[in-house]
Amino acid sequence: MDINTLLKKAKQAGKTALNESESKQLLKAFGIPVVSETVVLNKDDALSASREIGFPVVLKGLGSTFLHKTEQGMVHLNITDSQAAAAAVDSIAMVAGDQLEGFLVQPYIKGNREFAAGIFKDQQFGPVIMFGIGGTFTEALADVTFRLAPITETDAAEMLDEIRAKALLANFRGQSAADRKLLIRTLMGLSRIAVEHADIAEIDINPLLITPDGSVCAVDALAVFGNGATAIDVIPPVDPALLGYFFHPKPIAFVGASAQIGKWGHTLPINTISGGFKGDIFLVNPKGGTIAGRKVYRSVAEIPGRVDLAVVTIPAQGVINLIPQFKEKKISNMLLITSGFGETGATGKELEKQLIKQARAAGILVLGPNTMGICNPHINLYCTGVNVRPRAGSTAVVAQSGNMGTQLLAFAEHQGIGIRGFCGSGNEAMITIEDYLDAFATDSLTRTVMLYIESAKNGRRFFESARRVGKKKPIVLLKGGQSRAGNRAAASHTGAMASDTKVFDAACRQAGIVKVERSMDLLDLAAAFSSVPLPQGNRAAIMTLGGGWGVITADLCSEYRLVVPELSTEILEHLDKMLPPCWSRSNPVDIVGESDNVLPMEIMEELLKWDGCDAVINLGILGRKILVKRLMDAVLKADSTYSPEVIDSINKSLAAFEVKYIKHVVNLMEKYNKPVYGVSLMADENDQTVYRVASGRYKGLFFQTPERAVKAFAKMHEYQCFLMKE
């Protein structure tokens, strides 16, 4: 019987799942290795089949309602004779009752390496493939990995290497390594089933047994029908070109303008005006009058000429009444700052739904509601609830939290990270995170995307959009709500093993998203991706002012799967001529606290041109000016014979050197196309993470700790590996 016929008959019979034999027929049709077995209907046939197969055998109860046969006492292993087989049949029949469809007789296959594989349907992301440790402790150990279907052979191979128990797949205690080709074929077969048979909600293969000779065999399987997930409301996509108008308006109207300091209707226009925005700004309030010396219009209808963007801060209940006015005035973009909508509960959600319905019918695009605002430093547009003004650059930022967004902008301003544009996406009633991703893909000024998100409106679209963008420019993402695991009514171990966090992490890995765990990591990666070239490998050369610092950094490299290779004979000979005899003669290269300013510049070039490394981690050159200044201040205080002018010249000389050193590093990155991750010896309130050099393609990048530098290198290498897959 072909698979389509088998599935059709099962559904016509009202089955919610295939029995084990039928499940294995499905797997076998897609190239997945399964155990040979015989289906029988009574005790005599079971005994006959057992003798024909040859003891020891396995006897199981067969029925489409038996979802967890082991727990139900319907699996009997290692049956060595006919008497034991008869007892097993009687026991199974008593437990199964009238749900019994027959008996399954299998050869007893030796093997103590048990894995699990399967499919389940995620509400947000659709079909997901699982692989991990199997057996009776599957859920307790939770050693699993996931990928969204369809997967590639590269995805499947990565899954095998991601579980903690991957050593069991290699040669292990006299047993041969697992046949990786068969394991990959198994995962690829599951992927094909997920794509070609949407009516299969779950498949659970447990155990997927590895025999002592390395063969792979599915000895138990379950396939469950159903949608597997509740359908979600899908918000229609927004044309990226239309979204761009929000960030390049000319005339802006502030609807709900106020003269009261502290109100949104006052803060937003004041920040926009003081930020240097060159377009026309109109203030709207039914009371009229003047605010900040500007005329206040009683309605948008009174405004002369066109309005590209309306920034709305009036109370939630009144917003819907603006729709006819905006339509009449041909205002097609609304930045809805106002809260009191979907975030407040059922009543707010209904109000938001009605607003969006009317806005869509009127051809009005709504950003928000409940948003912190937007900014585009390239046109001096700083329309946000707090007064932060990062410089223009290439990092696009979207945050689903207004407070987190403004924190990111403030840090970017302080650390010299250039911003392409920022948006607090708010409730995303009409414009979602997926729309922003599609816009970033086509925006020529965006080189790096930085996201803070708590959820995706459409997980599958988010994944596909992110994967498209990720092939062109890096996406660095921090997710809030990591601890909220999804509750799944799963019939199988496969579905029960999943959580919102695990599936989201899998989607990020597969899409090439650089996912971070802390807000500082998000900012560091935004700085790194916008400042230095991508490393082509994971080999680090370390240059340090002190041995201990270098050792710690080398340990961190090992922790983050970076390699610290031994120096070649050639580079050792070069460095021997430059450094004193007491130098370490190894990587990390300890320049033993030498005060010669030329030396670190020369050693830096030697390391970058060395073909044995892919990046240089530089510890301790920048920041010496702070220590020296403190010393000079102490000298002046303790010894009046020194001239303040002489002391000042020493301070200025070292400050000038650090500027020269940054330029030298940037020029070397241009020359050798390798990144340099700097770590400052000390930092003060004037120091930044990113240092610009006139006409340089790259920028100086200096962190305050080795951990941050190493992590930046590791995450950039992770992204480079994603690019290399294609």
TrEMBL record:
Gene3D superfamilies: ATP-grasp fold, A domain, ATP-grasp fold, B domain, NAD(P)-binding Rossmann-like Domain, Succinyl-CoA synthetase domains
SMART domains named among the record's database cross-references: CoA_binding
A GO molecular-function annotation: ligase activity
Residues spanning the membrane: none
Keyword tags: ATP-binding, Ligase, Nucleotide-binding
Domain ATP-grasp: residue ranges: 24-243
PANTHER family: ACETATE--COA LIGASE [ADP-FORMING]
Designated name of the protein: Acetate--CoA ligase family protein
Species of origin: Candidatus Desulfatibia vada
